[in-house]
Amino acid sequence: MSVLPIRIYGDAVLHTPAETVDEITDEIRELVADMYETMAAAPGVGLAAPQVGVGKRMFVYGWEDEHGTEHRGVAINPRLWQAPLVPESFAELEEDEEEGCLSVPGERFELRRSPAVLLEATDLEGKPYELRAEGWLARILQHEYDHLDGVIYVDRLAVPSHKQAFKIMRKRGWNVPGKSWLPGEEKLEG
Ligand code: ZN
Predict the structure, then answer these.
(1) Residues 144, 185, 186, 189: which is the catalytic one?
(2) Where along the chain is the active site annotated (predicted)?
(3) What average pLDDT does range 39-57 have in this prediction?
(4) Which of 95, 139, 154, 155 could make an S-S bridge to 165, C-beta 3.0–4.6 Å?
(5) Is residue 15 annotated as involved in ligand binding?
(6) Structural domain boundaries of the chain?
(7) Separation of 141 CA from ligand 1 center, angstroms?
(8) pLDDT for 104-126, tens place per residue?
(9) Residues 6+ apart with CB under 8 A from 185
(10) Which residues lie at CB < 5 A from ion ligand 1?
(11) Regarding predicted confidence, which is higher, 102 or 160?
C-alpha cells in the first residue's frame, strides 16, 4: 500500500466525468487500499479516484459520527438520490455547513447540501448495497459523488464565496494543470 499524490484543482482529471468501473480487478483492489491509506494520511473523510489521478467512478469514505460510530466504505459505480431542497433550505448558510476538499487543501467554505441521500453502489466484492444517510454523512456522499462527475464543491459556491475561493486559488498558483500534493510532506508539489 502507498500514499498517493492528491491532484489539486485545475488538473484535468478532476474536471472530467469519470468512467464506469467495468470489472473489479486486482488493480482496482490495490487502488482502493491506496485510497484508504491516502485518505487517512491526508487526513480526510472521503476521497474519490479522480483525486488520485484515476478517472474511474469510485470513492472511499471514512467518518466517525458524534456517537463514535464509524462510517466507512467504498462506493463503486454509485448512483445517488438527493432529497430536494425546500424553500426553507435557502435561509442563510451556517458555519456548520462548511465543507473542505483535499483537492483545494486548507480551505473551507459554506455550502448548502441536501439533508438526506440514498446511495446505491457496489462494494469491493462486487456486491450491490444501499446506504441511506443524513446530515454530515449525506454531505460527504454528495461531495464525493460530485467528484465522479468532474464537479468540485467550490464550483457550487454562491457569490461571494465563489469569488473568494477562486481568488485564493489564483494566489496559490492553483487552477492550472499538473499540481498535486503528497500527504505527509509539508510542501506542495508540481
Ligand atoms: Zn473533494
Answers:
(1) 144
(2) 144
(3) 97
(4) 154
(5) no
(6) 6-189
(7) 10
(8) 999 999 999 999 999 999 999 99
(9) none
(10) 101
(11) 102
Tell me, what's the pLDDT at 189?
A: 52
Please tell me whether 67 is known to bind a ligand. Answer: no
Mean pLDDT of the chain: 94
pLDDT at 94 over 90: no
DSSP-assigned states of every residue in 89-139: GGSPP-GGGEEE-TTSTT-EEE----SEEEEEEE-TTS-EEEEEEEHHHHH
User: In angstroms, what is the span from residue 35 Cα to ligand 1's centroid?
Assistant: 13
Q: Which residues contact 187 (CB under 8 A, 6 or more apart)?
A: none
Question: Has 97 been annotated as catalytic?
Answer: no
